[in-house]
Write a structure and sequence with these properties.
- The protein contains twelve helices and no strands.
- The chain is mostly helical.
- The protein has a single domain (about 75-305), classed as Orthogonal Bundle (MetI-like fold).
- It is globular.
- Residues about 1-10 have low confidence and may be disordered.
């Protein structure tokens, strides 16, 4: 008696085949691949919302409320006139000056360092720039007062040779004195920001231009400067934002005698406000946020342009 195995054989269902299992897992993998990036950035989003989003919402809310909590536009109207408007004008002018001049000086210094053959020098400058770019406030103010103040060491030396800065109209405790102090940390910041862009200039571009008979000036005019310009503008926008929002250095140096928007906010929040104007500081803060938002928007645009070349 013979038995046939074909009588007991079963045909597997379509869903039981290995290929079908793999196909069923594909949507799950695709879903996980989309969810994982969201989980990766979730801590940053939460941190940003708690540290930046909630304060911004609070500033916007209080900017449109009077001390009794009622909605009003009086705070905005006050900020758009008189001494508060002057504070914005001075802050924007100071930020412009201390972004363009340090931007040019930092670009020249960074190019000199990048083209240097000394690796030790590049490391030292990078380290020093990282430290000096974050050096400000009371320590920086004391250093400049001890150096360029009315009784400073350098002032005494210059006076001995009849070159006292005060004789030429320089006053450390004035608007332009603050600008000079800002150069101390703005130039190193420019060096840090622009050095990667300078490193992105390919040597093959210069070689190709030279092989085609282009002079160094024509290379920089038609290749180097157009490629670097978006990065340079982006770096200067960062310097602008840094100087526009700086507070401690200007406050400790001038004791509030120079009208700047951050100093005005500090005075108002400290209680130096007229009756009914307690929330004007929030309106100034809203104005500063709008200026910085425009600055960061422009920075994003120029960085997108720069990334097309320096990849």
């Amino acid at each position: 008696m013979t038995s046939s195995t074909s009588e007991h054989a079963t045909i597997p269902a379509a869903g039981d085949t290995p290929a079908a299992g793999i196909v069923a897992q594909v949507p799950v993998r695709r879903l996980l691949s989309r969810i994982r990036p969201a989980f990766a950035v979730a801590p940053f989003i939460i941190y940003t919302f708690l540290g930046l989003g909630i304060p911004i919402l609070a500033v916007v809310d209080f900017a449109f409320r009077n001390p009794k909590g009622h909605l009003t536009t009086d705070n905005i109207n006050l900020v758009s006139h008189g001494t508060y408007l002057l504070g914005f004008e001075n802050s924007i002018l100071l930020a412009a000056i201390t972004s363009v001049i340090p931007g040019v000086l930092g670009l020249i210094l960074a190019y000199a360092i990048v083209t240097s053959k000394s690796a030790l020098l590049r490391r030292l400058v990078a380290t020093a720039s990282g430290v000096l770019a974050n050096f400000g406030g009371i320590n920086l103010t004391f250093m400049f007062i001890a150096t360029l103040g009315s009784g400073g060491v350098l002032t005494g030396w210059l006076s001995a040779i009849h070159m006292n800065p005060a004789n030429f109209g320089f006053n450390l405790y004035s608007f332009y004195g603050v600008a000079v102090v800002y150069l101390y940390f703005q130039v190193p910041l420019m060096v840090l920001v622009i050095t990667p862009a300078l490193g992105g200039l390919r040597a093959s571009w210069r070689e190709a231009a030279s092989n085609m008979g282009a002079s160094p000036w024509r290379y920089w005019r038609y290749v180097g400067i157009p490629v670097l310009m978006p990065s340079v503008l982006g770096a200067m926008l960062l310097l602008f934002g840094s100087a526009f929002a700086a507070y401690a250095t200007a406050e400790t140096l001038t004791a509030g005698t120079v009208t700047l928007a951050p100093i005005q906010i500090g005075n108002l929040l400290a209680g130096n406000a007229l009756a009914g104007q307690e929330n004007v500081g929030y309106a100034i803060g809203l104005g500063m946020f709008l200026v910085l938002a425009v600055t960061m928007g422009l920075y994003g645009l120029v960085q997108r342009r720069a990334s097309k070349w320096l990849r």
